[in-house]
Write a structure and sequence with these properties.
11-stranded antiparallel sheet, globular, 9-stranded mixed sheet, 17 helices, single chain, alpha+beta
């Protein structure tokens, strides 16, 4: 947890006393309520939704919060339903009621929307602000059934949620959320106080988030993937609640999922949509299976020096969320069930993970390009960033995976690791085998009789590499220019012998025939996903593109802005509209110098009703391809280049050797 100054928690004695007083007052209130009802302990059917609405740039730039508030006000609520809202965290509110200079509390009920309290602005990404809102709502608007929902950006297990635009995009991490909830409703996994906790944000359907709220709510509703800007359909799920206040948290969660997907379909943002309902009362078997999964992985890494490479390749082929490319940034979130299925051949405990997931994930919706989603994601370091790993270590659920990933990235166990290994009967871990130990940077290429280049690394590649792909360059020696066109995995790999062949066909990705820079963001059995940096009406975006192997078709899924430096994932998936002006972006450097590649604007086009993505022939000239290798620790190496001369549709390859 980040250190906080001026915390409201006070000393342990003060905190304990406050909790005792709160519990006493709560018990007294319950007794008085029973007396007033003649001792009838039956539920009264009332519902309250406590909505923590941190507007951020989503409201300032896109009025998305105002849109959802408008959707809410389409619903005529019955007298036994209250929605208590706290607004803040935005520089501008795109309506005449919310004041960006104030932290405001609102009540929406059968009488409409009313301002009930306002105070000086405060950081919505601070635990104290969350605590004060929850305490206020619970004290003044109690109900038989209560849901707490967050609205904002999300950043997964490490990034948290509620990034406040007015306070440097500070966010609530999981430890802060736990503290705030625990101060209002002391954690009780057997009898949680809330029906539901929901995140109308990106990336928060994780096993770590579920564990955080296990003692507070019966159900968790959240998305594994980035949510599109339209978000939840408030007229839909609140309308369902208004029609049937007898529903419990599970039924409300299903209504949120169904109406969300319907809303996405209505505006065309459903392709990568995910949303799930997790039954937190059934979470313990999953947490136990997940920990056993990690322990078995630790034991396997002690027996097999190549384990980390195999795990890395499984993770690369597993559905992951939020991008995980150098261009978009790394969320390091991967679908837990898909990762388990991909590793079941070497880790038998993976099946228990899949079974437990199927039992506790009550319901989910997902789009066609999120077909492998199982409802909850987990952490895996795709980029080898130790700082990000340290952030995970402070909030992560699995002790075994914390030690596993620390050793994978650094070659050392985190504090207490040796003792933990001994408790599992593991003596010590062998020295890692990484790319840093190999002399593969600049590895030579060869040509076969058909002019196909290939890289020979030997059987060791299977124990070292977490993945291999290629980068493609256009080379203009006369003009002293070199362009990087991007990355792909269109190779033929013989992992057993460590031999890799190019599959160069003289074509590349293009938007309306304009060649683009593109990065592979996911390579699966059924489809690949790519990220294409562009300027969209002058603003930086990443176009999300899919290639379907079965249909042999490309499709444009939309445009997003990737991760902020704070770890905040952009919630807005923007669809292209006729009249939009797109500027393609390439990466360029000099051919003779050692300068870094820099982005530059290439070509401009206007979106029409027929705008499409596809493959286009490369224009005549010389191209270089290098095989790019990486290991599980985030080390990279590149082979020597093969040169392709393209002329009139004919391709000839040349490799140079010393």
């Amino acid at each position: 947890m980040r250190p906080r100054s001026g915390s409201f928690w006070g000393s342990e004695m003060e905190t304990g006393m406050k909790n005792k007083i709160f519990v006493f007052l709560l018990a007294l209130a319950m007794c008085l309520s029973l007396v007033a009802c003649g001792g009838d302990e039956a539920a009264d059917g009332s519902w309250a939704v406590y909505w923590y609405l941190c507007g951020s740039d989503l409201e300032t730039d896109g009025s998305f919060a105002t849109t959802d508030l408008s959707e809410m006000m389409e619903v005529q609520l019955p007298e036994n339903v209250n929605v208590v809202i706290q607004t803040g965290g935005a520089a501008v509110w795109q309506n005449d009621q919310m004041n960006p200079e104030k932290l405001q509390r609102w009540l929406y009920n059968s009488e409409g929307l009313q301002l009930i309290e306002e105070q000086d602005t405060a950081n919505m990404g601070d635990a104290q602000t969350l605590y004060e809102f929850l305490a206020f709502a619970s004290e003044n608007y109690p109900a038989d059934k209560v849901a707490v929902t967050f609205w904002n950006h999300g950043g997964g297990s490490v990034g948290g949620a509620a990034f406040d635009e007015l306070y440097g995009l500070d966010s609530l991490d999981l430890a802060e959320m736990y503290q705030a909830f625990d101060a209002v409703w002391p954690a009780d996994a057997e009898h949680p106080a809330l029906e539901l906790v929901g995140f109308d944000t990106c990336l928060m359907a994780t096993v770590d988030v579920a564990s955080t709220f296990q003692g507070f709510a019966k159900y968790l509703v959240a998305s594994e993937e980035v949510e599109p800007g339209n978000g939840w359909l408030y007229s839909g799920w609140l309308g369902a609640l208004a029609e049937n206040t007898d529903m419990d948290g599970a039924a409300l969660g299903v209504a949120i999922c169904d109406t969300y997907y319907q809303g996405c379909e209505a505006v065309g943002t459903q392709d990568q949509t995910t949303l799930s309902v997790t039954d937190l009362s059934k979470l313990d078997p999953l947490l136990e299976a997940y920990e056993s999964f990690g322990q078995e992985a630790l034991a396997a890494s002690a027996e097999d020096p190549g384990f980390f490479a195999e795990l890395g390749r499984a993770a690369v082929q597993s559905e992951n969320y939020g991008g995980n490319t150098r261009e978009q940034g790394y969320t390091n979130m991967v679908d837990l069930g898909h990762l388990a299925r991909q590793t079941a051949w070497m880790l038998p405990s993976a099946q228990n993970v899949c079974d437990a997931l199927a039992d506790c994930v009550l319901y989910q919706v997902s789009g066609p390009y999120r077909a492998e989603a199982t409802g909850l994601s987990c952490y895996y370091s795709y980029n080898g960033d130790v700082d990000d790993l340290n952030g995970y270590i402070t909030v992560g659920e699995s002790t075994a995976f914390k030690y596993l990933y620390a050793y994978e990235l650094t070659g050392e166990l985190a504090e207490g690791g040796e003792e933990y290994l001994r408790s599992l009967g593991i003596g010590e871990l062998p020295e890692r085998v990484t790319l840093a130990n190999m002399d593969w940077d600049g590895a030579p290429l060869d040509l076969d009789d058909e002019g196909i280049s290939f890289l020979t690394l030997g059987p060791e590649a299977n124990d070292v590499l977490a993945g291999i792909g290629f980068s493609l360059f256009y080379v203009d020696e006369a003009g002293d220019q070199m362009l990087l066109l991007g990355t792909d995995n269109d190779l033929n790999a013989d992992w057993e012998n460590g031999v890799f062949y190019d599959n160069f066909r003289g074509v590349w990705g293009a938007l309306d025939g304009h060649l683009v820079y593109m990065e592979l963001s996911f390579g699966g059995d059924d489809y690949n996903l790519y990220s294409v940096p562009i300027l969209l009406n002058g603003e930086e975006y990443n176009l999300q593109v899919a290639y379907d192997f079965t249909a042999e078709e490309w499709s444009i899924l939309g445009a997003s802005q990737g991760l902020d430096e704070s770890g905040m994932a952009s919630k807005e998936l923007r669809l292209l509209a006729e009249g939009d002006v797109i500027t393609t972006i390439w990466k360029a450097t000099t051919f003779t110098g050692n300068d870094d590649f820099e982005m530059y604007a290439a070509e401009e086009l206007t979106v029409t009703a027929d705008t499409a993505f596809g493959e286009a022939p490369l224009f005549d000239g010389s191209y270089s391809m290098v095989f790019e290798m990486w290991d599980a620790a985030g080390n990279y190496a590149c082979s020597d280049a093969v040169t392709f001369d393209c002329a009139g549709g004919e391709i000839s390859a040349t490799v140079y050797k010393d």
